[in-house]
Amino acid sequence: MLGVSTFTFGSSTTMLVQSHVQHANLNAKVLALPGSKRQSLSFKTDSLLFGLAPSTISFKESRPVIPFTTSVASVDSDQITSSDTTNKNETKKYYFLVANAKFMLDEEEHFQEQLFERRRYFGEHNKEHDFWLVIEPKFLDKFPNITKRLKRPAVALVSTNGPWITFMKLRLDRVLTESFEAEGLEEALASNPTNLEFEKPDKWVAPYPKYEYGWWEPFLPPSTQ
Q1: Neighbour count for residue 136 (Cβ, 10 Å)
Q2: Does residue 120 sit within a domain?
Q3: CATH number of the domain where residue 180 is located
Q4: Which alpha helices (H) appear in the chain, and where do they start and end?
Q5: Dist. CA 200–CA 211, nearest whole Å
Q6: How many CB atoms lie within 10 A of CB 56?
Q7: Cα–Cα distance for residue pair 179/164, rounded to 1 Å
Q8: Roughly what angle, to the nearest 10 degrees, separates helices 111-124 and 162-172?
Q9: Is the omega angle on the peptide bond into residue 153 within 30 degrees of 0, that is, cis?
Q10: What is the total count of domains within the chain?
Q11: Top-confidence residue, 88 or 80
């Protein structure tokens, strides 16, 4: 709070100085708003007062300043890699079901229907195909427990969609299923050259026409179509 200073210049002089100081006190109270961190009041006394030079009276309230330091970490540009960079050695998981070729391509009543329906669905929704038929796939060499139970030539339905392969296993029943990892689609769908020949039945009794030979070709990997 501001004090009142009295100068001995005579009675009229004293009253005039007190009036200026009281006026300054009033202005300080008006400008000192609650909650502000910094309050400043500055005014000048009357320069005509007794021919004295103008003077400035300032009142300031400030909080202590806490010193702080900043640090800068340097990073080698060689250590920065994009999150979109793919590891060339990264493998992908593939799921498959397999059976002998005659059962899969010539005898099973629902297999062709299931594949054509799924291809139609993917086309209508602009989805990239994630399933293929592989005749005599090379990856079977990794599964001796399967090959010893499998009549050759064999055909595998390969997909990156595990739940769908499980569904097809339940739908077809007499097939074997497993999964494997490969570094690329070409490796996953590699096959051994095979010539398929199916004997025509003497009598066809089903109410629908028999599958045409080669109906499976649209589902082969692009390199073997």
Answers
A1: 17
A2: yes
A3: 3.30.70.1860
A4: 11-31, 101-102, 111-124, 144-147, 162-172, 185-188
A5: 11
A6: 8
A7: 13
A8: 150
A9: yes
A10: 1
A11: 88
Positive or negative, the CA dihedral 203, 209, 214, 219 is negative
165 lies in a domain?
Answer: yes
Domain that holds residue 143: 92-194
User: Which are the contacts of 158, defined by CB distance < 8 A and separation ≥ 6?
Assistant: 94, 95, 96, 131, 132, 133, 134, 137, 188, 189
pTM, two decimal places: 0.59
Residue 106 gets which letter from DSSP? I
Domain assignment of residue 201, yes or no: no
Question: What is the identity of the amino acid at 44?
Answer: K
Contacts of 186 (CB under 8 A, 6+ apart): 223
Report the DSSP beta bridge partners of residue 178.
Answer: 96
Tens of pLDDT along 108-164? 878 999 999 999 999 999 999 999 999 999 999 999 999 999 999 999 999 999 999
CB-count burial class (<10 Å; 0-12, 13-18, 19+) for 195:
exposed
Mean pLDDT of the chain, nearest integer: 72
- Tokens for 201, please give them: 């039945």
Length of the chain: 225
- Enumerate residues 6+ apart whose C-beta is below 8 A from 17: 5, 6, 7, 9, 49
The 3-state DSSP class for residue 110 equals: coil
The pair of three-digit structure tokens given for residue 113, joined into one six-digit string: 């229907």
- Do 94 and 188 contact (CB within 8 A), yes or no? yes
Alpha-carbon Rg of the chain, whole angstroms?
Answer: 46
pLDDT at 83: 37
**CA–CA distance, 98 with 111 (Å, rounded to integer):** 12
| DSSP bridge partners of 98 | 156, 176
**Mean local confidence (pLDDT), 23-32:** 44
